[in-house]
Recover the amino acids of this structure.
């Protein structure tokens, strides 16, 4: 075995070990496709590795015109008492996380609000969470900083070298989760863009050409019948209607927000996420890990129904800041899908919710069971809800449902 193949195999084993740690608590059904749960799991590992009260992870954003060096946004937390740090944008060089980004190495303080080695742009947020001692470690892969891992104590204290090393270890092990999720998002974004281009070309070449032809014929009639005011007036109105239809077509080509039976399932699910985010202002991402075989209409309807129910639950009850819809292939041609939010519903608890939790859920549970699958609603111990469906592949022609 070559050294390259051996190294790749060893890396694969290490990555699988990390995923096993993150996902074992979910009956073996959770996989890395659940980005919310996976990265929240990283936050828990950070807290445990450092022996800290809190752990959280700030994802690195892309540089913008106003911030050429970029920033990090804290989205995934464990052990926090408040939401003071949720969605906090940390600029490079600012605070402990920004300093770690700027230096490219771990930074620690014994008391955040009095530390002379960092700026104090975020003191108000830190005071609300009552944090004292803190560590910030950049998550780096191939020279690119993907995130910042934080650990903190509620009050002053000291983090030793061992704690710093352990947080750095967890940060390094988090790289596959961050990279894999970003790659999946990029892949589905490419699929969505390709589908949009196909539909734009099809509509332009068919409906657009038809409207142009009708408009040309109406204009010819107006020229051929100049002495008929009544008919000329009616033709003018038809021409105005054609112009309005052409404008509507152009707007449709820009938005393409309506779904149809010819659209691929990932494209339709991604559009539901975009619509939810535009409607609520809550970050909503669609992630696909691996190709999914074409599904029959009934299975597709169940998956779309689960997404709609999950997004409706997040919108009405969850008070979520992030929602992730994830799709992945399952064994033997099956499919699994989850809608995971990080909200804290009023009746939050742990464990699996019963089928009566939402008005649409009992119907989805029954429809999934008819197809030999399972629909379940799970609440996470740190807050957040995951609506999950697993459907087996359709039986071969001539066989009955399992």
């Amino acid at each position: 075995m070559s050294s390259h193949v051996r190294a790749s195999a060893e890396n694969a084993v290490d990555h699988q070990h990390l995923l096993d740690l993150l996902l074992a608590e979910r009956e073996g059904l959770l996989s890395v496709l659940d980005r919310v749960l996976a990265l929240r799991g990283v936050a828990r590992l950070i807290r445990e590795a450092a022996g800290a009260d809190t752990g959280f992870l700030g994802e690195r954003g892309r540089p913008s015109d106003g911030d050429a060096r970029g920033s990090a946004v804290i989205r995934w937390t464990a052990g926090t008492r408040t939401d003071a740090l949720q969605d906090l944008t940390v600029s490079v060089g600012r605070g402990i996380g920004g300093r770690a980004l700027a230096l490219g190495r771990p930074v620690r303080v014994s008391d955040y609000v009095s530390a002379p080695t960092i700026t104090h742009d975020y003191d108000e947020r830190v005071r609300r969470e009552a944090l004292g001692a803190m560590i910030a470690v950049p998550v780096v892969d191939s020279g690119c900083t993907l995130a910042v891992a934080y650990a903190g104590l509620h009050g002053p204290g000291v983090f030793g070298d061992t704690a710093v090393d352990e947080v750095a270890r967890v940060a390094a092990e988090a790289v596959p989760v961050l990279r894999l999720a970003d790659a999946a998002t990029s892949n589905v974004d490419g699929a969505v863009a390709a589908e949009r281009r196909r539909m734009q070309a099809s509509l332009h070449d068919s409906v657009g050409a038809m409207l142009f032809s009708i408009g040309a014929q109406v204009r010819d009639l107006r020229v051929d019948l100049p002495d008929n005011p009544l008919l000329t007036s009616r033709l003018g109105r038809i021409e105005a209607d054609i112009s309005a239809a052409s404008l509507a077509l152009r707007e449709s080509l820009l938005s393409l927000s309506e779904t149809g039976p010819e659209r691929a399932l990932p494209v339709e699910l991604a559009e539901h996420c975009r619509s939810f985010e535009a409607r609520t202002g809550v970050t909503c991402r669609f992630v696909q890990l691996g190709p999914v075989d074409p599904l029959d209409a009934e299975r597709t309807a169940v998956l779309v129904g689960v997404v709609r129910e999950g997004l409706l639950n997040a919108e009405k009850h969850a008070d979520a800041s992030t929602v992730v819809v994830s799709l992945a292939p399952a064994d033997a041609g099956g499919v699994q899908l989850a809608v995971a939010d990080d909200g804290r519903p009023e009746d939050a608890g742990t464990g699996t919710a019963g089928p009566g939790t939402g008005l649409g859920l009992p119907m989805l549970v029954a429809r999934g069971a008819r197809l030999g699958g399972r629909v379940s609603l799970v609440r996470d111990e740190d807050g957040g809800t995951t609506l999950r469906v697993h459907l087996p592949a359709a039986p071969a022609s001539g066989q009955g449902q399992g």
